[in-house]
Give the backbone structure.
Amino acid sequence: MNDIMIREALDRLQGEIDPITRIRLHPEKAVLFEALAVFERCGVEKPRLPGLLAVYALLAEALARHSQPLELDDPELTRRILDGDYLYSLYIRYALKCMEEPLLRELSPFVKKIQIARALGQNGEPSLLSAFEQVLLRQKEAR
Amino acid sequence: MGLHKKLRVDLRRINREMKRIVKYDNDVPPNSELERALLQTIDAGGKRLRPMLVTVGSRFGDRPDEHRIVQLAAAAEFIHTASLIHDDLIDRSPLRRGEPSLHTLIGPAKAVYVGNYMSARVVELLSGAEPQPGSGRQSFTAVATAELCLGEYEQLEHAYDYELSLDDYLLKSRHKTAHLMAVSLEFGARAAGAPEPLSRRLYAFGEHLGLSFQIRDDLLDFTASDEQLGKPAGSDLLGGQVTLPVLYALEDPALAAEIRRVGPNTKPEDIRPLLDKIRASGALKRAEAFCESELERAREIARSLRDYAAHEDLLTLTDYFGERKF
């Protein structure tokens, strides 16, 4: 069941990506299974799960493209910068499309803190999945 | 007189707001390398065109919240600045406006994250505060950034592509330059409560204005001095950017043969005679005429909005863009 949901979410996402970018998403299945398990534990309703999973996958991919090392002599540097920027903008757009505006708002400080940690060269940046979990649990409590 | 004075825009207030956004962020350690890099980038200045466009757009609404407009204006400049930081890395450009670019000063990885911080901070500030027009939900950051990226992808795709069509050139220029100017006007108007059709009209004005801006930039690669440009004249041609003057010059078979020889390994001194020949051809005049026709289309929209006092500001913008020398 979860396998089908993951495939559906990724197919839907690939359709959102402009072909000129030539971006292909290949997130690790195990990471997405883990994310789904966390979302379910946080009481996320079934119809919301595919969209939420896609939003998570987009942000995780955007952050991964900009992870260290980033060196001037890396022939992939240009693509990594561009792909990361594009996927980040798509994450915002897709979150709004899925009516996940409260999630976007509550995640924004976490995303920013990840960038701050990276800019300061700090080890152990905040975990993205933990950030999702905190926000989703808060939303559950508020219901 | 500077454009901001003609438009009655307090740039010092916008600069202060940009710094405030950084300094009042409790997550950025005071005096850290990150804070210094951000403040230095803000202090390096720029024309601040996009904040001016947000402000002018807001004058078409009937309930402008001054603080919110200044915040949105600062956010527009944050998005623009973040894209310039990343552009410099993509182009491996060691200079920005004649000064060392940020990645030259702090290294490529940290420069990427400074740009990312600026984008993330804007989302944090604006999420929840942005007005949602009738049907679709939009985010200033997402709307602006996605198109900027597409423009970059198109530029990469067509580097040294001397078969580039005029339509592809215009599409790339809309994505890379015109769109952010257009959404600055549009979101400024929307934030001040302007009706949706009017906001869309201002978008159309901004798109023509932005396209003229890009064509003017293309022309400056041939007409401005190295000092004015902050980089050697002819850099666009050397870097494989097929700009509007180059597209027109390619229609001359003799010039086309020379242009097609320009590739990634061509040296700056090799293209000097070619630059002179393009200057002496009619290509620059034709590009100038195209630039003027875009400005005229922008003026038509401005005149159609004469019921609004702020339409005068739109005309001031077209005058400025028409006379821009660098």
